[in-house]
Amino acid sequence: MGPLPRTLELFYDVLSPYSWFGFAVLCRYKNIWNISLQLRPTFIAGIMKDSGNQPPALLPRKAQYLERNDVRLLGQHVQVPVQFPKDFFSVILEKGSLSAMRFLTAVSMEHPEMLEKVSRELWMRVWSRDEDITEPQSILAAAEKAGMPSEQARGLLEKISTPKVKNKLKETTEAACKYGAFGLPITVAHLDNQTHVLFGSDRMELLAHLLGEKWMGPVPPATNARL
Amino acid sequence: MGPLPRTLELFYDVLSPYSWFGFAVLCRYKNIWNISLQLRPTFIAGIMKDSGNQPPALLPRKAQYLERNDVRLLGQHVQVPVQFPKDFFSVILEKGSLSAMRFLTAVSMEHPEMLEKVSRELWMRVWSRDEDITEPQSILAAAEKAGMPSEQARGLLEKISTPKVKNKLKETTEAACKYGAFGLPITVAHLDNQTHVLFGSDRMELLAHLLGEKWMGPVPPATNARL
Fold it and tell me: Who contacts B149 (Cβ-Cβ below 8 Å, separation ≥6)?
């Protein structure tokens, strides 16, 4: 038996493009590095409220930089087909991600094997094709694209307003806050006797260094480029 | 004759530890990549004022993250001997960097060959040994450590309150603002027909990708680890 894998928790929200970048990179490395990756759907608005932080795009010059430079260039570099939604403020600040993240929470509780794929399809909707992720039919469409049987998806959707699912999302969000989150994604690396918290999608080379694993860029050659 | 080197401008302030990381990495790569690196001493408080941004450490949870996690871990990874000053708020928010950045501006105008070394010694004072960088004798001590003759250093120090030096620092700060800066460092990459603006010290792998150069981590093996 080899050494026990170290655990990485990735706290993410599909409203956050940097969460997508972090998710894409870690999903590529999870079979290369000796790690166990736990995907933790989290509610970003809850993190912002609890920490007193503001979405970066509220500062006009940051919004410009994110849209014209950083998200675009990182999308090319990380090979994720990201596109800014046309009406960014309505999509991100008004419509939000509560139902989508409750749905992913239900997926994580009942069909964890589908969580990666459904998460990816929700990002593809909101952060690539500028499609809604708040209406029931939008969420069902993402689940269908991910390959989930429609009966199963409907069953999960019915559960998103139950206390069990709501509380689970709340607990995960509180856990992220306890780790010191003021935004998403955060990666919490549980190594031998240490826990490291890394904010954002741009500490993956540092993470490799902490793990003693090899960093081969955001698209490691051993895997096919996956979203 | 090989192809003309592409120009990178690094806008930095010694009050910013992330500027130090970016500076350290680019100074290591400047002789490896086909680039011309221009060091541009900038006044971070001017950037914050003009953009309406706030220093990240004003949000308590960010301050905690920066000190306990990010700056410490990046310091190890980038191999820069960074240490948080004990009285962070007094050093960063009250004392600031105006004289130090005016001094570096004078160095860049009259003895540009000394700019890299003097900048590094100022970071060593404020962000490694928790020493003052506002008093004349502090600045002279940094210049001396960098190997500048004391007569020369005194001459430059006398010039920091001249309109020529003050205006030059103002112009550089305004230039950074025109590139969209809301903090430091920013790296402005002038490639064939494109200009890319990269914020922070964590886009260097992306920069390599834009340049078509090889990324070998923050401490490329071809050079000795330099601060």
Answer: none
